[in-house]
Amino acid sequence: MAEPERTPDGRFVVIDGRRWRATDPDIPEEAAARLRSLLMRARRDVGAARRAQDSEAERDARARVHAAKVALGERGTPWWEQDRAERRQRWQHGLDTLN
Asked: If you average pLDDT over residues 57-66, what whole number do you get?
């Protein structure tokens, strides 16, 4: 799969003409891959909960989606406004919480 277009500063990706915050490039690849896997699992769980009309399970799954997105640096305090220690703490906390 080709890499999405990025803004010149590298902070955003452009997909179908929309800007989305890019994943923190300082996350080690192994950790980023694990977080992406957890994100995809949570997204699948949102769909399953919606199909089952289980609002509690949907809330839980959406919370996990949000936690993974924050850990990846795609939500919350922008990664470019954090120092390296804060960034590491953010993604490590996400891994600890979601595993």
From this structure: 98
